[in-house]
Each structure stands twice: as structure tokens, then as C-alpha cells.
Amino acid sequence: MSEDKIMSEQESLRLITSMISKAKNQYYESGLGALLWGFTNLICFTLAYLVDTIKGFNLPFNPFYLMGITFILQFYFDRKEARFKVAKSHLDDIHKYVWAAFGICVLILTIVGGIANIGYIVLPLLLLLFGLPTFISGCISKFKPFIWGGIFCWILSIVTFLYQSEMSLLFVAAGATIAWIIPGFILRARFLKTIAKQQNGL
Fold first, then answer.
1. Fewest beta carbons less than 10 Å away: which of 31, 34, 131, 164?
2. Measured in Å, how far apart are the chain's first and last C-alpha atoms?
3. CB-based burial of residue 75 (10 Å sphere; 0-12 exposed, 13-18 middle, 19+ buried)?
């Protein structure tokens, strides 16, 4: 076997190893989804708290209608940033299905719960749901801020079950902040750093 062929095989092996390493270790999630939904929930539930507790504070619309705008923005940014993904694996599908199931459960709970007029009991249930996909995503990606965020939502859920009142709305807002907004900023910083390295050929 010639020296050129040996070098060629070694270079090919290094290239394949590098590609596998990037696909395995690079958590390309931009953090934008977490920030979008984190801030949307923070704003919606804070506004709902103000409407419920401050006399004369009214809005010309239901604050939760803002989530419809966030759905559109999420779809737009997902398509825009898809080109930055290095590779797609079965873990990507797991993330997608977990969060899709979460979204369906939240829709059923909020819509049917509203029709059934179940009141503040919906809020600790929402926090339970908030914690589930967040914790799972954190474990899959080995991203500790999501893991702790999910656990924090479950702790808030216990508190909210025991003390159901207008304050429960703020507990949900706090859960969204810890579970999604703070991790979202961390992911966003990592994502932008990764993109800068790719643009510089590193």
C-alpha cells in the first residue's frame, strides 16, 4: 500500500470522525424557541394577573391571544435557522415529538378546561406539563439549565396545587422564566458562538 493511499485513508478517517463529532456533540438549538415561548408566557400570565387583581385594569383583548402570534414567529424562525443545522439524528425527532405532544396536551387542557370552567386548577397542571418536555430535552441534550428548569416547574406546581389563587398566574410566569427564558439566553449565546466559528472556518 503506497504512502499516498495511507495518508488519504487517514485524512478520510479524520474527516469522518470530525463530522460525526459535530453531529453528536453540537447542540445546534438556537434558543430562540425557548425565548419566544418563555417571554410569551411571562407576558401573558403577568397581564392576566394584573387584569384579575387591579381594579380598572382592562385590556381590549385576551392576553393569551398573543400566543397565536408566537406560533407564527416560531414557524418562521424555525424555517430560517434550519440551514444552520449540521446534521439530523433520531434525537432531533425525539425532541420534535416530545414538544409536539406537549403542545397538544396544553391546547386540550386550556381549551377544554376553559369550557369546563375548571378555574385555577388548570395552572398547576400547566406547570406539570411545562416541566415534562423541558426536563426530557435537558436529559437528552445533557443541558442542565433545562433539567433544573423542569424540576423548578414541578416544585412550583406543588405549591400552586396547595395555594390556588391569583398568585398562581405569577407562579406560571416564574416557571416560564426559569425553564425557558434563562436557558434560552444561554443557548442563544452558544448558538451565535457556533455560527461565528463556522463562518470563520473553524
1. 164
2. 32
3. exposed
CA–CA separation, 86 and 128 (whole Å): 33
- Polymer length of the chain: 202
Please write the tens of the pLDDT for every residue from 162-194: 988 889 999 999 999 999 999 999 998 988 887
- pLDDT tens-digit map of 22-41: 444 444 467 888 999 999 99
Per the prediction, the chain carries an average pLDDT of 81
User: What pLDDT, on a 0 to 100 scale, did the predictor assign at position 110?
Assistant: 83
Dump the DSSP string for 55-121.
Answer: TT---SS-GGGHHHHHHHHHHHHHHHHGGG-----HHHHHHHHHHHHHHHHHHHHHHHHHHHT-GGG
Residue 175, C-beta contacts closer than 8 angstroms, at least 6 positions apart: 41, 127, 130, 131, 152, 153, 156, 157
**Judging by beta carbons within 10 Å of its beta carbon (0-12, 13-18, 19+), is residue 199 exposed, middle or buried?**
exposed
Nearest to 172 by CA among 153, 188, 150: 153
- pLDDT at residue 169, rounded to an integer: 94
